[in-house]
Every structure is written in C-alpha cells, then in structure tokens.
Amino acid sequence: MDGDRLHEPSAEAGKGANFAFSRPLLVAYVSDAGSEGTLRAALADLGQAVAILRGGIAYAVRDLSRKPTPQVLIVDVSGVANPIEALDDLAEVCEPDVKVLVIGEQTDLSFYREITRGLGVLEYLEKPLTRDSVARLFLPVIQGRAAFPHEIVGGRVVATVGAHGGVGTTTVATNLAVLLAEHTRGYVALVDLNLQTGAAALMLGVKPSAGLRVALEQPDRVDALFLDRTAVAVSDRLRLIAAEEPFEEAPRPTATGLARLMTLLRRRFNWIVVDMPTAADPALLAIYPIAQIRLLVLTPDIVAVRDTARLRAMLTALAGNDRALTVLNRCGIRGGLPAAMVEKGLGAKVDFRLPETDKALLAALNLGVPACTRSRPFRQAMLALMREVAGARVARPAGLVGRLFAR
Q1: Direct distance between the N- and C-terminal alpha carbons of the chain, in angstroms, rounded to an integer
Q2: Whole-prediction pTM value?
Q3: What domains lie within the chain, and their CATH numbers?
Q4: DSSP code of 57?
C-alpha cells in the first residue's frame, strides 16, 4: 500500500504479545517421533518457515493461547477421545483465517467428511504419514496453491445499537468486547462506526488511528495491510478500529467499503463487536443483515421504549426478521420507568438488565478504563450478557456441525 493511503501504525499497534500481523507460515503439533520425522523430511524445502513441535492438539490449544496464530496449522488428534470437541477448543484460540490440517489415527470416511465439510479443516491424513502424502495433500495448502471455493465464514458479528443517543450503546459494546477478549480466548475487534462522535477510544484510554474513513469511502485503496495500519492494540486479544473525524466534514461511507472492511475483519477476528450510530448512514445499515447477533440498548424512558419498537421494525425491513436481544441499561435509575412498565411498552420481556451505576461509569470514562473494572454490579450484569453472546458461537442445530474455521 502506498504511503499516502493509510497512515503508518501508531505506537499502540506494537502492544499485545499474542496478536501478530506478521504471522509464522507453519506450525505443526505432532505426538510421535515418526510423524515428526516425516513432516520434517517432506517440508524440508520450506526451511525455517516451518516449526514442528512435539505435542498433540491439547498442547496446541495451550500453546496458541499465548502465541500468534500461524498462517497454516497442523495438529495431531491421535488418542483424543472427542476430536470434534478438541477442534472446537482450538478454534477459540486461533484467528479464523488459519488454514488447519489434521493428522490422526481415525480411518473411517465419516470422520473425514465431518471435519472437512463441517468444521472447515482443509485436509486430513491418517497415520502413518508418508512423504508423498504430505507433499501431495499438505504442501499445496502451505504454499497457497490449493483452491478452496467454499464460502468464507470467519468471525461472528455483533451489532449493537441504541434506541437514541445517550442510552449507553458504546458502554455496552466496549465492555462486551473487553469481556469477550478476557473470557473466550478469541481475538476480538471493536469497531466504532460513530465516525465523528465515537467514544469507544476514550473509554479504553487509547487514541484511534487514521484509516477507518478511508476504508469505508475508498475500499479500492485498502489492502491486506489495513488492519496492521489501523487497528489499535487495547490488550493481547482486543483491537479497536475507530475514528475522530472533524465536525466540519461529512464522511461518506459506501456499502462496498463496509463489505470490504467486514470481510477483512471476519478473516482475522473471532468476534467483531460493532458500535452502530442510531441514525446511521444508509451504507452502514448493511451491517444488520450480516450480524449473527444484534443488541438493542435502551434506558427506562418512554422515548427509548418507542424507538426500540421502531428499531425492531427497521431490522425486519433490512434483515427479514426482528430477532435481537434487548438490553435495558441504567435499570433502577431514579425517575425511570419500572422494568415491568418497560416490558409492557415493548410487548416482550427484556433480555438483560444493567444496573444504574452512574458515578462508577463516569469515573471509568474519565480514567480511560473499561467500566466493568470499576463497578462489580455492572461487571456481573455484563458477564451474563457476554455469556449469552459467546454461547451463540457454539450453538448448533441438532445433527449438524458448525464450521469452526474460515475457508
């Protein structure tokens, strides 16, 4: 990318030991000496780009929870009682675009079909390995010569929108992203699409870098280095993508730019939490049909109840359904509507209630730290919401296996 496109990464981008944009080519975890020797011989031409470690998939999960995800990963599922569950655990600690190759002792065709068609594993080899089989089936994947026409699935998108300004949408989105990064071991991107008035960066004590507006307005100027230049490190597994555009200017995001941005993010992150402006630019509304989870944030007042109903109508028009979780923020605030009256106005139960902790939230904002670190009641309520959101990742229809890795 040319230097006049997106600015260089800020100093913050160097933080975070686990998330790396410069990733190793291949790491293999094998449980026996014979497989290790065969892989070393078959992949000898790749030289130092290959790291082969002794240990099975359980060791891989522990090791990759502390290290960058390689571009290609070989894991050994030999001796594992439930390899599907083990691959599920592996998916939690890896970036979604990793190319996963599996070796093991299972010989039945149904297992091969289940992991390659259902889980996103690109190839499976049964032991004992041979140089020929590794070179023929694994090497094209490692060298990027194999073609995979499958749909890119990648990370899950959580769209968060408020009934109106001031209900706490950014607070919910920011703290949800923080807790997802802490508790799921996945890689999380927080995207603040309030291009001129966003507050996510302030709540996290970081400064947004340039690039988000360019990505949304001129997608043809964005390449694979976009995340490297634009994402700001908040923690090892949390990145913020935000902007502080001047009030006197008028950003003009495009639907193509949004689609390109989400494609890049879903390839690299397990979770993408999007803080949406209530009155969003029409181009940004395309986020709702692709979001697997939608959160409607409101406060206990009559305007918020009215506008939450209007948001549900919008979701029906855009996505074909009004499925969303309602989050009642500042529950119990003096002068606010009782929760029962809010639910009567909505015609449905509120899914989650966040307590009124005005002083703690204001103190957290002024200190530039997540509110969940300053208020125990707020943290407990947000943890319940986080568990609901995180649980949606592994929820699968009976008899079906969900894809774990991007293709």
Answers
A1: 25
A2: 0.74
A3: 12-142 (3.40.50.2300), 156-394 (3.40.50.300)
A4: H
